[in-house]
Q: What sequence folds into this?
């Protein structure tokens, strides 16, 4: 790779499993590549240019690549909404000149073996690995197959803060909403791989580790280099948006992850949207169809299923002058992506009474930390959430 993709040279290989991870890989590349072509027409309708497993292009060819030897590997999940957003993000990455390789990494019992076998040559050649989810078992396994000396971790939302904490404290890598529980049999069986991956993610004399983040991380373990993601690529390529008079509400998957009770969440959404005259509800890609149908019926909100990460949707517009959210990644990222506009981001706290009996003991503290550390947002108290009071 030329010096245009970072100071250390050699091929760069990025692994992503979600649309937000791919967005943040593009943001990292924007800061690492000083010769990006930001004066090109903005990709409002980007061409299709996703490569197949053999690396051959599909659809329209991308523009002349500014990113030499930079390959983004999409380890495709099974969830249809996530796959759809990843396809759109892959098109954007291709239009920026990245080589995008789509892997059906979960398409059957033999898929992991075929995926890993096909990626082994790239892993051996790579001199830099960029990952979006250090908690992913797939990514952890791939990390054990390379001796790469330069690793970059880009944001996978607020989980980045948890990763930094666990790395500093020498703990096993586990997602925040599962932390505090007993390891499953699968966790124990995968333990040796996870520990080996954690060693790869620990800086040493011969290994450089960078965390590229928009999260409020004030300190990092010794040797970990922090670099700031200010969403410069997003702001240079999209917007500014047209603003509507009403408010928009951002959904969360806290119900789906077992943290927040469904009935209390629905009542809180109804109360919050009524208090702020919200008209649209931007669904999280993991929210269930049944939940969204019920939410629409009980609140009257228009349900929007975004085809891109919300940072891009908001920047392109139209978007409400007020964006309401519960504690989530967007309370940190939207103020950056919408810098210079008149959009106000407001965050509603999670009342401890909303938590399920199965929620992690750390859930309330983690969610409060997400809200309390957010910059340039308005903090709202918890919405009333007594079951049975929802608007009809």
A:
């Amino acid at each position: 790779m030329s010096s245009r993709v970072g100071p250390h040279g050699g091929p760069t290989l990025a692994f992503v499993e979600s649309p937000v991870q791919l967005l943040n890989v593009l943001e990292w590349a924007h800061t690492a590549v000083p010769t990006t072509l930001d004066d090109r027409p903005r990709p409002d309708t980007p061409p299709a240019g996703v490569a197949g497993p053999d690396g051959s292009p599909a659809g329209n060819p991308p523009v002349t690549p500014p990113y030499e030897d930079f390959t983004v590997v999409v380890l495709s999940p099974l969830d249809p909404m996530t796959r759809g957003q990843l396809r759109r993000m892959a098109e954007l990455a291709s239009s920026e000149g990245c080589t995008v390789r789509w892997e059906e990494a979960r398409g059957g019992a033999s898929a992991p073996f075929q995926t890993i076998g096909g990626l082994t040559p790239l892993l051996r050649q790579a001199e830099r690995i960029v990952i979006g989810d250090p908690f992913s078992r797939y990514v952890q396994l791939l990390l054990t197959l390379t001796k790469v000396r330069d690793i970059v971790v880009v944001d996978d939302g607020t989980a980045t803060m948890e990763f930094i904490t666990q790395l500093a404290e020498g703990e096993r890598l586990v997602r925040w909403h599962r932390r505090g529980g007993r390891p499953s049999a699968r966790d124990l069986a995968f333990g040796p791989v996870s520990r080996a991956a954690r060693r790869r993610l620990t800086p040493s004399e011969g290994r450089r580790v960078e965390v590229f983040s928009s999260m409020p991380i004030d300190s990092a373990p010794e040797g970990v280099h922090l670099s700031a993601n200010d969403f410069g690529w997003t702001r240079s390529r999209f917007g500014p948006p047209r603003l509507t008079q009403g408010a928009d509400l951002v959904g969360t998957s806290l119900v789906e992850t077992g943290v927040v009770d469904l009935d209390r969440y629905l009542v809180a959404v109804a109360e919050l949207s009524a208090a702020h005259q919200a008209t649209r509800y931007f669904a999280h890609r993991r929210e269930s169809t049944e939940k969204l149908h019920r939410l629409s019926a009980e609140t009257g909100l228009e349900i929007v299923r975004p085809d891109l990460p919300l940072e891009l949707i908001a920047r392109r517009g139209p978007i409400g002058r007020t964006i309401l959210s519960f504690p989530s990644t967007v309370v940190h990222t939207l103020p950056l992506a919408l810098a210079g506009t008149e959009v106000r981001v407001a965050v509603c706290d999670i009342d401890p009474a909303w938590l399920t009996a199965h929620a992690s003991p750390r859930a309330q503290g983690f969610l409060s930390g997400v809200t309390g550390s957010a910059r340039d947002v308005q903090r709202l108290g918890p919405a009333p959430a007594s079951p049975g009071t929802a608007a009809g």
The chain has a mean pLDDT of 82. DSSP finds twelve helices and 13 strands in the chain. The longest helix spans residues 80-95. The two ends are 58 Å apart (CA to CA).
